[in-house]
Amino acid sequence: MASKLLKIAPLEAQNQIELSLRQAFELLEPQLRPPFLLTIPTPEEYSQLNRAILYGVLCEPHFAKIQIKYLHAVVTDGYCFFVNLLTTIVDELYSKLVKSARIQLISLVSEMIYVSAVGIDGLLASLLRQIVGGDFSDGNLWLCFELVSLFLCKWNWLVEEEPQVLRNGLYTYLRVLSDHCRFPGDSKLEALRRIEIEFCIKVLREQFHLCLRIGRDLIRLLQDLVHVPEFRAVWKDLVLNPGEFKTQEFEDISQLYRRRTSSRYFILRITQEMESQLRFLLTHVKLGSQKRHQAWFLRKFLSGSERETLIIDIVRFICCGHHPSNDIIQSDVIPRWAVIGWLLKSCRKSYVEANVKLALFYDWLFFDERIDNIMNVEPAMLLMVNSIPKYVAMTHTLLEFLLLLVDNFDSERKDIIVKGVASSFGMLARKGVVGSIHVLTSCDALSPPLKEWLGRFLKAGVSTESQQVHLPDPSVPSFNLPSSTTLETQTVIVGELTASKCTPNDGVGTKAFDSSVPILVEPVTSYSSLVVNSENLEDAIENLVHRFVETIRKSNTIDIQILEKMLLSFANLDGRKVTGDFALSLQPLSSKIAKELDLNGHKLFSPLESIPNISNCDDVVHSATALIIRTFIFSQHERLLEMLLSWSRHGFPVGKCLLSYVLRLAYEAHVAGNVMLPDNSIKANDLGMPFLFLHMDEYFSFLNGGRKDSPEADLSTAKMDHQLVANLVDGAFSAYRCFLMYSRNSLDKAADVTPARLLFSDLGYCSKWEKQILKFSFCSIFYYLSDLSTGEEDIIKLLVTLLDEADIVLMQFEIGVKKFSIFGENTETIFYLIKDSLNWGLLEQHKVWGLIRSELAVSMVQVEKLILEFFCSDNLDPNSASIAVEGLLMLCSCRIPTPELVGAIMLLPTTAFQDFSAAVLATWAVSNSSVLFDSLANFLEKLGNEKGDLFTSSGIRINHSAISWLLSYFNTQGMKDNDILSKLSVSILDMKSMLQL
Fold it and tell me: pTM (2 decimals)?
């Protein structure tokens, strides 16, 4: 069967990506035609629907508009999954796509820009990588034209929403322009050259502050275009008139020299397939067995007459974008310097060879130990040294080229160049890359003039390096990472991260909190050993991401340690300025992690429908989700919080997972507390609490810089500490509250979403937990998150819906001893809750009144106000209000008859529950008769002072049943009516008349 999507050779195997898309399309094709079914799909259905729509748009252009409208109607994740599919197709299938599919692909990209789809920046970067340097085929030139036209068309959006895409585009088009401008008379290239120049000049002139972040390689690219009039003018302003760029932070071109260019730009200039083959060559092929691999690489990627310029980009990538591990360096795998030597020997054009040498030595010229990586300058040094025995001509030409660069690259700023190259030599010798520089200065095979030249430079370089070179203030500080701290000096500890402290609140055991919810904005000092010190942080994170992706794709397993390093390194970025630009900012990094986990079958942020038992809990405890949550709880760092919020905005149930984690931790801590002896003599691993055990273990590891060999971290023998466990739980709930508070701020203000509503939504996911754990969870919510849960109708209704009578009674016991409060002390809030509960089910009403009675019996709430407001309500229906009236009756019976409460009972209106007052008085007459009559006398005295005001036609009448019961009670007790009513300035007959007896 011929493919509609790909160009496939006759004997080529079927592509699995295309197969999955086509199968989804064939399965769901009827749904892709109007009328559409607008039901809410399950996650699996949603994924299949996205695949089907994508295949339909690419293969059926005539139906594309209809299917895109359907996509807009069903999207629930900000187009994240759809864009990930597009990126996968670009990365792995672009070169095989049929022409019509490529056209549709660009159309889809434009549509995704229009809707500001999640991950669109990564998709555009992948497309830019498909532009091959030195390739003048129609397909490659078409892609160049389409993308640069798209960038100009979407200019305002790019400037406001995705400035990184502008930088990527500028770097790419400056690089390919050097190829396109070498053929000025080619009419086929004229229109493309014109629009490429227009775009690049527009970025440079209007957004130069963005261009600065590209770093020093921007100068390298511009130098290659100085013969083009438009760029000659830019170059003149860079050198002579920096103020023309209207960028306050730019004063001199030397500032660009000192900005290291991020490796992401070098990766932009090689295709995904080329990167994969280079990394394979540099990590798996043994030295001595590389020839056939090199020959294949030349045929595949460098066979065209003009493809030779690609070698420049490949060398920059090898030097700055691929840093092998120590294991690879010490193995017999072909080293980077050998591959670069082979590439240099492959150059046939002298100007290409010169640019390759410049690419090799470029970081030498401006090397600064504070911001540059020794791995960027290592290949050139090793190539010179290792070529001496057999290929001394290579050493001679490279060394001569380097010394010529020092003298001629920028004569006005030669002191900077001298200092940079001298620093490179010095660092390489100190770090043991080479034993000594004398291996070059004393080499008999090198010509004496060259050695003498090198000797003079080294002597002058040492002198220059010892002096302070005066430059404009650098924008990049030192990248020395903080050292590990010990447990004794650690200041970032759970329980002290926020203002949440265990303090009594009017006698009720709830947690007081600071509504400002402080967040760390300093580097995460306590896990510094996890941050790769041999590289600056941007490269470290990008390499960690690459290793993470490589591991999960090859073995389908998650390397938790790499993910942990990645997160902590990302958090550490916040405490320092970064050089050049950073490839994986917040949105790309979070999207990349989620995408790779999802594509390999690992669901990120999947809430627990039930708490697993010990035998099957490993998948949950050691999951990527649990690691991310733990890292945030321990650090509560702003950048990690932003990452969680980003996932949340894109549809991941982050809050639900975070709450699930926190509640499970609290539950295991509670169970452990019940079995711990007063002297803490139980060992941690004897408790059978794997979740708590791992949380504590990772906590100690966090405090000790990632080391697990400290005495505190050995939980197999450590004894449990009550206070430590309590602090860990406090810190976990503080982190969750922090997430809720900032979630509210990041959501649409018009949505009227409060932290309490978010808590209720998250709590709903715990509904399938075991009743015992569920009951404990509600108790924890009202204890630790009292400010978000107390008096919240939705949460209280969920509680009485999910818990059975036995659990409700147990909660009543805890409420009675004031462990926590459910309803609070706001009379108005409680009244509205009671009123709304009249519409609940009968069982739920009975349960909630059990809780109300238990709490209000021991609280300071003014019950008299509740009773008056309730019975004075309009349209009080006897059927719907009967359970509430019963609850109020029982509540009154357990309260002391104070003058205020008795007064309220006496003044209740005669409603459908006309005997309520009499029943309450009768109850008090049995249980608290002396207090009742003292309070009644007090009430009647106040009535007497009011004279007739209370008995006017517009005044409040004394309750009919109360007077009737009192008269009956006094007669039964042998008292005279006027003994008790004599305090009133009205006779009994008049009273009866007013009461219409």
Answer: 0.58
